[in-house]
Amino acid sequence: MGKLIRIEVENFKSYKGSQTIGPFHQFTSVIGPNGSGKSNLMEAISFVLGVQSAELRSHNLKDMIYRSEAMSNDGTSAGGHSPRRASVTAVYQNSQGREFKFMRIVTSDGRTEFRINDRVVTYSKYNSSLEKENILVKAKNFLVFQGDVESIASQSPKDLTQLIEQISGSWEYKDEYEKAKVEMEQAAENSAHAFIKKRGLAAEIKQYEAQRKEAEIFDEKVKDRRECVLQYLLWKLYHIEMKTNSLTEEKDQKYFASTEAKNQQDTLEYQFRAARENKALLHRERTRLELQIRRIQKELEDQVPNSIKSKEKIIHLEKKLKQTEFNIERVKRDGQQQEEVVHSLEKDIELLLAAEREYSEASAAVSPEDTPQLTLQQAKDYERRKEEVNNKAADEQQQLYQFHRQYRTQQQRTNELRMKLESLEESEVETIGKIKDAEAEIAKITADGQTSTEKLQERQNELSKLVEERESIHRREAALNEKLQKTLTKLLDANLTLHDTEKDSKFNDSITTMKQIYPNVHGKLSDLCRPAQRKYDNAIATVFGRNMDAIVVEDEATAIECIRHMKEQHIPSATFLPLHSLLVQPLNHNLSSLVKGARHAIDLVKFDSQYEQVVRYACGNTVVCDNLNIAKTICFDMNESVRAVTLDGTVIHPSGLMTGGSAPTQPVTKWHESEVEELMRQRDAYLAELHEISLNKRMGSLEDSVRNEQARLQAKVDSLNEDLMAANRKIEGLNGTLQDIRNKIAEVKQPLAEGTLYMEQLDEKIAEVRRRIAEVEDQVFEDFCALINVANIREYEAKVQNGSDEVSERRAQLASQKKRLLTQLAFEKQQLNELTERFQTLETSHAADMALKNQIETELNGMGGRKEALTAKLEASKQESAAKIKEEEEKQKEITELTSILEAKGKDVKQILKEVGSIETEISKYHAERVAIFRKCKLEGINLPMTQGSMDDIVVEGEEITHGENMATDDSSISSMDVDEPPSQTSIMTSDWTIEVDYSRVGKLQRNDGSQDVDKDFQDEIKKLTEEIEKMAPNLNAVDRLESVEESLKAAEDEFSIARSAAKATKERFMAIKQKRFSKFYDAFSHISEQIDKVYKDLTKNDTFPLGGTAYLSLEDSDEPYSEGIKYHAMPPMKRFRDMEQLSGGEKSVAALALLFAIHSYKPSPFFVLDEVDAALDNANLATVAAYIRQNATDRFQFIVISLKHLLYEKAQSLVGIYRDQENNSSKTMTLMLDQYQE
């Protein structure tokens, strides 16, 4: 590699005349004060190497010419004429050792001229010659301007991409790349458009061909459907007649069986009523005795709590008195200790005051009369000699001053540490005393806890025996009472709506009938789903509203058939919900997360998956809220346009209207009608068992007494355990505090000892320095001291100053110590007063508690003995009640047996009648189907084969089918093949047509199989043919249109071929340019990415962190890296990953330098000029950067660094010094070789 030898300037900026700057070595530093011309040297190098003026500080080329008035300090001309041109010559030596002179000249009229070896050349040839030496002017790979480091450290990923594009040369392809990309996209769009046009015409041709074929098979499909329909109707009529005959025979048999069962049921009902009357008399007598027993038991139980309560009060007071006595003793002991602390402090203060008086007396003993008095001439002589001493012993005086300052600082620190140590030692003693008190308290609590635990174990054993005797009975009684309460509540709710349930029985029966007639009827919505929990019954019923009793059907056709049936049977109107045609609004899943306590209504309903559509329709986007406040929050505060329903039935509509509330509505119980019978049976069984259990219960006064005693002991043990835990925690805290104090004492002792030793060393140094000063003073003041009759000048100065400095310092120390002791004494006296007040309070409380305990003991001893009389009366009542219960149990057994028999017989009768009704419904269903088929054949002109009569004998009524109030479907929507459409009831009952169908066309296999599978096969085939026919719409103009479209297709194919070729060509051209741009860019990026970590490690490693930091580059877009940014990450040693913006200024500068050096390593220029790149570096980083530059400054790499920091330029091989020549009003340079000096 070559190198820059020197720079020759002539009248360039601040450089007057012809000057040579250099020579430049492998590592040359340029130094000089601000304003001397360092930056002008940087501009001279940039100028001669072809950098555009727009990128320099002086944008106008004429400003490059030296002007004497511009260089004058006062702004006036320095004399002479200003030069008319300026030039800069760079003397460069290539790798073969040949020298080249690159020269650039600028004239006063702004023209510029380029020369190589004194020959004028064009700029392109000039630039080409530089590029041959790898000096890239556009990329500026040979210099770094002042401030570039900071801008590189803070640049964005996009800016870094542009920098690498310039370095790599891929920037040259940018405009060509963008143009080729636009052309490729346009060609691709044209090709796609032509292809779509071609594909559309091809599809149109296929469509016309299909229409032609469709017209040919249309007639054949119509014939096939008509034949299939006829065969289906014959098969269906045949099986309807067979099923009707079979059901009629079965109905007659069921009628006879129901009559016989009804007679047996009447006899059993008479016996049951008689048994219930007898049992009622026994139950009233037993109830009277049980009430009497409960009154006696309650009176006995009332006697127990009063005595237990009094005993508990006494025990509580005893415990409180013990605790108070303990506290009195502890406070008394603390008070004595506090008095000792106060006396000790008072004694220390007295000693300090005495020492202060003694020192004042000693200071006053020095008499000013002994001090010699100087004349005016002697005073002047003294001052002159003193100044002479100061001059001769200036260094010693400075040392003495520094030693005195260090001594005072250390003395202050030592005093502070000594005071802190004394305070910590006092705290240590106090904490040890508190630990001993806490340990004594733990010992007392442990002893009390062991005694109480033993008593508690005794009571627990006694209580377990009592509990075992009645535990099983008690558990059973509680369970039965809970079940009975729930059962009675359910029965009460059911009875509230019993009248409504009976009123709707006809409606429910009609639904049962329709489910038997029409297989696509599923039932009421309230029967097909139920709330997830009982608490949501009322809310879900309110949400459903009128849809509660809505009838769910499969489709609209079934709904219309059911509506017609209900009109014929004179049944009130109803709502029908067809599963397949309901319009359901989409669920808003965000409603469940609006507010805590609000849930989507559909999430609170259990249902089969096939009914999801209808439940979603009924619920909509309604929200169920736990209370009205939550509903108001959603609707009013959050402004959500939803319907909100609370658990009590209150509704807030989307419009803001609020309705409902109060008790559960009638529809709620409709979910639980089937449970009423079972609930009544459970109620009777629970009551009977509870009566039996009540006789076996023992009086619980003894158990309650033992239990109360156990609870009292348990509470005492728990309290003692809590006290023990609190005391242990207290000791742990005190031990922790003690350890902290001892740690702090250890921490204070070491620096205190070190400070004391350091002060002793300073004393020795001060004495030595004073001795040397004294020798100088004795030499200078020898004859002066003899004149004023003193041994030496120090004796005179001591008498004059009277030791004022030492006296002041000592008095300040005594005052500070006195203030500290007085403050501590005031605090300790306050603590002593508080302990005294607490002692008096505890004594008062102890006396009051003792008086209260004596009063309660007196009251407890005065209680009477009514308990024995009540116990005897209770036993007699129990015996009489037991006899009545036994009689009632026997009667209950008889009633239970009769009930079981009667229920079984009632079920038999009900089942038989239900079966008869079902059979009649089935017969009606089949008869209705037969009539419907005949009517359909008559209306649609289908001729059925007859053995008797003809189609003319079938009468068709002239009435139209009407709609239910909640259906919006007309007959036009029903397919002509829906043969299950029922006629009116009148037409069914009066149809006495004298016709017989000829079933000879029904095959043997079809006669034997009347299943739904065969029916479905027929309907599927008919439906298939119908759909195919309806889809067919022959187009008569298809042939003519087909020829025109074929011609258009041929033209479109030619157009597509041309567009595809153009798209392929533009894409190939774009990919070629893209590959060139990518290769250049990626080659540079790969090289820089590999080098960045090595360079950064070299710049950041040191003795502490030998491995250095980590740095790397990452592409945001690996396919087209030049289109997006490049992220630069640098992690200094021992620091975690963070963004570049979060690094310190020095860390950013080091990272930026690493990036610059790494970029420079790609196609490096022979020299690298750096302008004050070390501005933001601290000393550590500066030393590392200097070492790096020195290490890499070789024959292949030359550094020229402009710097103001000695840590950098002192590492250079040579120095170029720039200074301001005031006389000539010009910048001048000097050169110094540093290699000849040892480091």
From TrEMBL:
InterPro entries: P-loop_NTPase, RecF/RecN/SMC_N, SMC, Smc1_ABC, SMC_hinge, SMC_hinge_sf. GO terms for biological process: cell division; sister chromatid cohesion. Residues 967-987 are annotated as: Disordered. Pfam families: SMC_hinge (PF06470), SMC_N (PF02463). GO terms for molecular function: ATP binding; ATP hydrolysis activity; DNA binding. SMART domains: SMC_hinge. It is found in: Chromosome; Nucleus. The keyword Cell cycle applies. The keyword Cell cycle applies. Keywords: Cell cycle, Cell division, Chromosome, Coiled coil, Mitosis, Nucleus. GO terms for cellular component: cohesin complex; nucleus. Its main location: nucleus. Residues 519-635 form the SMC hinge domain. Residues 279-348, 379-476, 676-779, 811-845, 871-898, 1035-1069 form a coiled coil. Belongs to the SMC family. SMC1 subfamily. This is Structural maintenance of chromosomes protein.
